[in-house]
Amino acid sequence: MKNLLFVFLVFFSLSSEASISILSDLDDTIKITQSNGSAYDYVGEDVFSAIPDFFDAAEEYSNEMHVLSASPTFMKNHIIHVLKKHQINFKSLTLRPSLFENKFNYKVREIKRILESSSDDFILIGDDLGEDPEVYMEIARLYPNRVLDIYIHVVNGRPLKKKNSLTTFYTSFDLFLREYLAGRMGYSWVKTALDKLMKEVETTLIFPLKAKCPTTYHPWQWQYETEFASGARALVQKLNAVCRVRQSVNILP
C-alpha cells in the first residue's frame, strides 16, 4: 500500500509540473533569409550559427517544437529540406495558405490553434523584421499564464512597443544564456554555443550582411554579470570587431 501511494505521489508531482513547447518563426530567426533581400535569400539553406544546437538542447526540457512561418505553402518542401539538413526536429510546420492574407491575423490565428490543441506552456521565438513582436504580445495578452518567454531576434533594430515584455537577442549565444538563466538550459550547452561562435569563421552566419551589427558592448553588458563573463567578453570583442568593419553597410528597412 505504501509503495502504491509513493508511485501515485510521484506520478502526481510529475504530471502537475508545467510542460513546455517551443514555437519559432523561420525566416531571420532560424533560417538566414533577410526578408526584403534578394530572391536567392529566400531559397538559401543557411541557418544562424549554433541555432540547430539550441533546438537540440531545448529538447531536454521541452516536449515539442512548432515552426510557424508567413512563407507561402509552395515553399514547404524547401523548408522541410533546410530543417532536416540542419537536423532541426519539429512537431509541426505551418505556412501561409494565401499571400493575400494579413500576416498578423494569420499568425495570431495559427498560434491560437496550436496553443488550444496543447496543454503546454510556450516559449515564443521570432524576429523584428516582420510582426512577430506584435503577434507574440497579442498571444501573451490572450494567454497570459501560458507564455513563459518571448525572444525577438534583432535584425534591423526597429523600435519595439512594450519592449520590457520582450527579450531581444542578437546571437544564438544570447538565447542559450537567457535560457540558462531561466533555469532551463544546461551549463554544458551554453559552453558549446560559446565555443561554436568563438570558432565560427563565417561571421555572416552570426550577423548576415544586412543585419544590425552592434559596434559596442552595450547590448551584451548583461552577460558580464553571469558566470560566463570571461567567455562573453571574448565573444563580444570578436563580434564588435566584425561589426565595425561593416559600419557602412545599409540595414534592411
Describe this structure in words.
This protein is α/β, with parallel strands linked by helices and 253 residues long. It has a domain of 168 residues: Rossmann fold (3-Layer(aba) Sandwich). It is 41% helix and 14% strand. It has a 6-stranded parallel sheet with strand order 3-2-1-4-5-6. β2, α4 and β3 form a beta-alpha-beta unit. α5 packs parallel to α6 and α7 packs antiparallel against α8. The longest helix is centred in the C-terminal third of the chain and has 17 residues.
Rg from alpha-carbon coordinates: 19 Å
> Biggest β-sheet: count, sense, barrel?
6 strands, parallel
Q: In the CATH hierarchy, what is the superfamily of one domain?
A: HAD superfamily/HAD-like
User: How are helices and strands ordered from N to C?
Assistant: HEHHEHEHEHEEHHH
How many strand elements? 6
SS element count, helices: 9
Give the overall shape.
globular
Chain-averaged pLDDT: 90
Strand order of the largest sheet: 3-2-1-4-5-6
Could you name the CATH topology of one domain? Answer: Rossmann fold
Features:
Rossmann fold; six-stranded parallel sheet; alpha/beta; 253 residues
SSE layout:
Layout: H1 2-16, E1 20-24, H2 39-43, H3 51-58, E2 64-72, H4 76-85, E3 92-96, H5 103-116, E4 121-127, H6 132-142, E5 147-153, E6 167-169, H7 172-181, H8 187-199, H9 229-245
Helix pairs in contact: 5-6, 7-8
